[in-house]
Design goal:
Radius of gyration: 21 Å
Distance between the termini: 31 Å
Strand content: 25-35%
Structural class: alpha/beta
Number of helices: 9
Order of helices and strands: EEEEEHEEHEEHEHEEEHHHEHEEH
CATH superfamily of the domain at 184-324: ATPase, nucleotide binding domain
């Protein structure tokens, strides 16, 4: 009989991004959460495309090395799925028992899922009764190739995968749900996760996800713009970007003589424009449903949110409150080795994934 059967499970939250792999190990404490390990490494080139791990063995080797180098002895991983093909949507359907809905969920979800239903994992949660004998249901769909390729990569690293979450849910768990100092759970917020290749926008209504959307503009868009214009290496462009401050562009209308800022400004404006489109879409859906909820504020996180002045610039352009939050802005999170000046912006998803087994146990 294998001794593995008697070994306690230990979990690590793994955020598998197209440019960076991030790992977080976390413990529950009486006061909140203790982050025992938070580490990252560059993703091997061209191994993740549109959320799909195209080379599970290379990613598996990278995960194994990351955990080994940082002395993380986890046996199981919690991973997330995200991207344009991952659907999270609140829908209103005729009231029916959960058992009946489970049999018909593929038909119901087919109206909202752009990819093949047969090639997707579908889950749902009944949120409550609505008017006219209807009920509100949160539908989640993720393509099987995204989920299964990530599971294979973890297995190649010697890890079991028992939980696959949605990255937006993980970020909400660590940034919003676990923070008692804010009133976000009582508001309508836009949760904006600025990554390297994509920016994910989720509208959350008093703790309930209403919609998610993936935008192709993100941190690497700005890096590439600087590299191409000034003929820089990717490393030098990234370093130069870190020195910029978008607040310089919020002025009295006079021309700003700052060529690097002028290079990235159109791309930042494209990002803000797409975020505004997402908020307008949510508002139009509310109007069609005869409701009047509007987004109260934007909660900004993710590695790309570390760009200086981004929150202030978005506030200026959107005309609403924008709050930039990382995991270590939350007083309930303790990380004794924490010296990250960005307050853990890049670790929001991985931390939320690491928290997930505790939520399951509760």
């Amino acid at each position: 009989m294998s001794l593995k059967l008697f070994r306690n499970k230990s979990f690590v939250g793994l955020d598998l991004g197209a440019s960076t792999i991030k790992a977080v190990e976390i413990d529950r404490t009486q006061a909140g959460w203790k982050v025992t390990k938070a580490c990252s490494m560059p993703t091997p080139k061209a191994t993740i495309k549109d959320g799909v791990v195209t080379d599970p063995n290379s990613i598996g080797d990278a995960i194994h090395q990351l955990l080994k180098d940082n002395h993380i002895a986890a046996t199981s991983a919690v991973i997330g799925a995200a991207g344009a093909s991952v659907v999270v949507r609140s829908v209103r359907i005729p009231k029916m028992p959960e058992a009946v809905l489970r049999k018909s969920i593929k038909f119901e979800a087919g109206r909202y899922v752009p990819s093949s239903i047969e090639d997707s994992f579908i889950e749902f949660e009944i949120m409550g009764d609505a008017e006219d004998g209807s009920m509100d249901v949160l539908v989640v769909a993720a393509p099987k190739d995204i989920v299964e390729s990530r599971v294979r990569a973890c297995e190649a690293a010697g890890l079991d995968v028992e939980i696959v979450d949605v990255e937006a849910f993980a970020m909400y768990r660590s940034i919003v749900e676990a923070d008692p100092t804010h009133t976000f759970n009582d508001e309508v917020i836009a949760l904006v996760d600025v990554g390297a290749h994509t920016t994910n926008v989720s509208v959350v209504t008093k703790g309930v996800f209403a919609m998610t959307r993936s935008i192709p503009q993100a941190g690497e868009t700005l890096t590439e713009a600087l590299a191409n214009y000034f003929k820089l290496s990717e490393e030098d462009a990234e370093s130069g970007k870190a020195q910029l401050d978008l607040q310089v562009l919020i002025g009295d209308g006079k021309p700003i003589e700052n060529p690097p800022l002028r290079v990235i400004q159109p791309h930042v404006d494209d990002l803000v424009r797409e975020i505004r489109r997402s908020l307008n879409y949510f508002q139009s859906q509310q109007t069609e449903a005869g409701q009047s909820q509007t987004v109260d504020k934007v909660v900004l996180s993710g590695g790309g949110a570390a760009l200086k002045g981004l929150a202030e610039y978005m506030h200026h352009k959107l005309g609403m409150e924008v709050v930039r939050l990382g995991v270590f802005d939350n007083p309930r999170f303790v990380h004794t080795g924490h010296d990250d000046p960005s307050t853990g912006l890049a670790f929001a998803v991985a931390s939320g994934l690491a928290m997930r087994p505790y939520a399951k146990a509760a």
